[in-house]
Amino acid sequence: MEFPDDLYYTNDHEWLRVDGDTARVGITDFAQSELGDIVFVETEFEGTELAQGDVFGTVEAVKTVSELFMPVSGTIVAVNDELQNAPERVNDEPYGDGWMVEIELDDESELDDLMQADAYAETV
Amino acid sequence: MAESSGTIKTTPLHAAHHDLEARMMEFGGFEMPVQYSGIIDEHMAVRNHAGLFDVSHMGEVLVEGEAAFDFVQHLITNDAGTLTDGQALYTVMCTPDGGVVDDLLVYRRAANRYLLVINAANRASDFAWMQEHNPMGARLTDAGDEIALLALQGPKSLEIAQPFTAFDLEEISFYHFREAGGAFMECESAIVSRTGYTGELGLELYVPADDAERVWTTLLDAGASHGLKPAGLGARDTLRLEAGLCLYGNDLTRETNPYEAGLGWVVKPEASDFVGRSALVQIRDHGPERSLIGFVAAERGIPRHDHVIESADGEEIGVVTSGSQSPILDTGIGLGYVPNDDRYTEPGTDLRVASRRRTFSVTVHEPPFHKK
Q1: Considering Cα of B160, then B54, then B60, then B214, what sign does the dihedral take?
Q2: SS3 call for B23
Q3: Which value does ipTM take for this structure?
Q4: What is the C-alpha end-to-end distance of chain A, expressed in Å?
């Protein structure tokens, strides 16, 4: 199971990849593997402002539903619409084409609340 | 995620599941495989080729003796009097109020020998129920731990099992079985049954627990070239839901009666004086208050157990009892109870399902959702 070093991780199994003022958010390899075949991803829309820990969407596997939580506070600036037709991308490439939303960070200091790859790997 | 309860049981195939790296979960008091390669992959294997399921968590009760037939007729709502040796029957057994205690299969092995196959979660309570409703003194034996049950399901299933069977499997009709001791994989005793829970051609194989791993491995090895895959309880649930079959605990409980569950066809009040008969005659004559309907999502959304069913104008009318994404239809499907009123039950009617985050449209559809 892969946990790339350049990402931040949460206890709820989201990852965050920071690129300047924005960051992409998705779920980890562990999360997609636990959920099994993902058939439905739904997130809040562009422009939605959310606080750290807020629910920003749901991901549904055949048998289970899981909520998605914001790793840090921010505003959604892009949504991965490709997942509407190809939700299986979350299984296939959880850190690549399976990303879910892109956010503009409110407060970079919140990144300190997140885990590095090695710390996250120990929790799963 | 798996919950451990301290007294969790395993089937004789536990080590085999571990070797196959199955994801395990607790179900009905047993640690069971929920998936191996993935629910959709296993589901499609069963629809297109074949799948092999370990369903040894199911319970088996032997009913024997002079009073065996009278006991069975008293216990179940269906008519065991229609059975000949080697024939099986789907039925329910009910409380005096007409609530469903369990749904089960009744196998007539001989005039005074029956096998009852019951749901895992109900094994202890069903056996106690049977003992309490046995004034005629039939001999009841809980054989659940001695018998393993493998379900070989899918269009290729007979072809896969035939080389290990000393008689022609095609000769067994649907809902019939053969006592195959020795003639099936040299098992000391075996029941080869043309039954299943997937809506596909298939067999259910009752073998001694000691033979289970050998039978499992032999079938998986021989079937691989036919596209056979091990399949878990996840696919079993999506397959049975597409086939429109009820799941006890979801669609059937002691708070539901067979008429509202669409199982009026297994109630035969004219045949015998069974437990719950007078209550069920009342329900039949007045018509049930609720009705179990099937529905298909008309837009993106997956119905789930406990979601609220609303009329098209938003009035809360019922609750989803089973729901999933259908791998064959690639859309959400579900079952649920609504008032027994044509305004809600007529196929083609628009209803809505409300999940915590959103509400989506569904269309009433008479099960099954998938026909061969």
Answers
A1: positive
A2: strand
A3: 0.79
A4: 10
Please tell me the predicted confidence (pLDDT) of residue A51: 97
Q: Per the structure block, which two tokens stand in for B178?
A: 């053969």
CA distances (Å), origin B104, targets B65, B152, B173, B246 = 20, 19, 19, 11
Largest CA distance in chain A: 37
Same domain for B44 and B67, yes or no, is no
- Find the CATH number of the domain harbouring B86: 3.30.70.1400
By CA distance, what is A33's nearest residue in B?
Answer: B38
Contact A42 B357 (CB under 8 A): yes
Q: What is the dihedral of CA B143, B246, B238, B28, to 10 degrees?
A: -40
Identify any residues that bridge with A67 across adjacent strands, giving them in sequence order. A58
CA distance B365 to A52: 42
pLDDT tens-digit series, residues B22-77: 999 999 999 999 999 999 999 999 999 999 999 999 999 999 999 999 999 999 99
Distance CA B147, CA B56 (A): 7
What residue segments make up the domains of chain A, in order of their start? 8-118
CA distance B186 to B208: 11
One-letter identity of residue B110: A
d(CA B50, CA B268) in angstroms, rounded, equals 35
Q: Provide the domain limits for residue B65.
A: 59-139
Total domains in the fold of chain B: 3
Per residue in B156-171, pLDDT (tens digit) is 999 999 999 999 999 9
CATH at residue B347 = 2.40.30.110
Those residues with Cβ within 8 angstroms of residue B348's Cβ, 6 or more apart along the chain or in another chain? B363, B364
Selected residue of A34, A35, A39 to mutate for chain B interface (largest B Cβ count, 10 A): A39
For the A8-118 domain, the top CATH level (class) is mainly beta
Measure in Å the smallest separation between the Cα of A62 and chain B Cα atoms.
Answer: 6
Boundary of a domain, candidates B71, B105, B139: B139
Query: CA torsion sign, B84 to B86 to B91 to B96?
Result: positive
Listed residues B139, B164, B197: the one ending a domain: B139
Contact B302 A36 (CB under 8 A): no
